[in-house]
Amino acid sequence: METYDALLASITPGSGETRTIFDPATGGVVGEAPVHTVADLETAVTAAVAAQPAWAALGHDARSAALFKAADAVERSAEELAQLLSREQGKPLNGPNARFEVGACAAWLRAAAGTPLDPEVIVDDGETYAELHYRPIGVVGAIGPWNWPMMITIWQIAPALWMGNAAVVKPSEYTPLGVLALVKVINEELPEGLLSVVSGGREVGARLAEHPAVGKLMFTGSTTTGKAIIRSSADTVKRLTLELGGNDAGIVLPDADPKTIAEGLFWGAFINTGQTCAALKRLYVHDDIYDAVCEELTTVANNMPMGNGLDENNVLGPLQNKAQYDIVANLVDAAKASGARVLLGGNPDPGQPGYFYPTTLIADIDNNNPLVAEEQFGPALPIIRYSTIDQAIEYANALDVGLGASVWSPNLTAAREVAARIEAGTVWINKHGAVDPRVPFGGAKQSGYGLEFGVEGLKHLGVPQVING
Length: 469
Ligand code: NAD
What we know:
Helix content: 25-40%
Radius of gyration: 22 Å
CATH class of the largest domain: Alpha Beta
CATH superfamily of the largest domain: Aldehyde Dehydrogenase, Chain A, domain 1
Largest sheet: 7 strands, mixed
CATH architecture of the largest domain: 3-Layer(aba) Sandwich
Number of helices: 16
CATH topology of the largest domain: Aldehyde Dehydrogenase, Chain A, domain 1
Shape: globular
Number of domains: 2
Strand order of the largest sheet: 12-13-14-11-10-16-17
Distance between the termini: 65 Å
Number of strands: 20
Bound molecules: nicotinamide-adenine-dinucleotide
């Protein structure tokens, strides 16, 4: 008997239109999600507007205490939430996947709740005394994607709530159940109306982005939708944090040891079966060690089981939806047709149920190939040769996105010098995609603007106010 039944029942609508959510691993039914409308959004925003002033007036300590309790509540329901997430999103329970994501929800709630943001004295020279404060914004909208649906919701709402705001969440239509369940659990510890989920389609998201009572929008999703949101939010001059698409480069310097780095490279690229914004999506390897890196990476990748997420053996799952499966399959087919060399995978089994695409490594591929130049967002990694550092950096910086990147070398000084030349919001050294609630995270170029996490993240959920005098 699956343990999440009661949790699922608690969010299943009794009446009204519903949308059936299917398990991407099996095609079986996971549950029914409400299809909320723009009218439901109005109700949620009205409730948020009403609840926010009292929440703000509680002060930081009381709000922190409530968020710490919310983190405890998430932990009490952790296994049920992880099972629901695994069924709905496809990611395995095991590995850096569903249990890891639910654990991160509790961790980020606590991190936000425990990070102080005190007024800052900017000038105090005897003549001028100026302090910088951050006031609550009011109502914050949170629109999220389907790849890390619970964790990203928490990234958006934890700092928003801590800063004294109310929040209205619009989850992806592909993964509403987990977010509904997560918010239900958190709401055990929060005042009524302060935090709600509107489980609707794009039109609900678009209305949230233009809503005059919403002061800020936290958006995580594709660059295309981010641009639509900038347009919809223009008339209300809404504040925005945009965490958009990426196509992260990793550069392996010639002195790296292929065996030592292979597992880190693998997880950098294939975490969540490649469906991760800041995953390594283009790997640049120096000629001298190209063949050795290809070989070691293939060995590691061969040993990572993919399958139904509820099976504890698996660490990789299916693509979450058919559209994403088709993107990956088409890009790999085009790469193969161009003459690139398949080291592993690239041969999905048409008889297998679910959206499983095998772990795929493609070598000897041209830097302009679409599998390199476009965001594949799946388990297919192109490995490109380079011969000089300048060439590798030019390749890395050639695209109009810049979320993350990585440099791999035992020589930290050399790696940091290369890192400083890469146009990306974060450059990791000897790892990729490792986010930390204390460290700011955000994109460069068309990967978005604004920062999440840490004190900088809190500041983005407040309105700066200078008290001068
Ligand atoms: P998406 O842009 O298709 O959808 C994201 C959300 O936006 C969904 O909830 C959707 O309903 C909503 N939406 C769609 N049109 C809208 C509109 N006009 N106005 C308001 N809301 C609208 O993205 P996706 O396919 O769900 O997610 C995958 C993308 O997200 C990838 O590009 C990935 O790189 C990116 N992503 C970025 C980060 C980051 O932190 N930078 C994290 C995760 C995912």
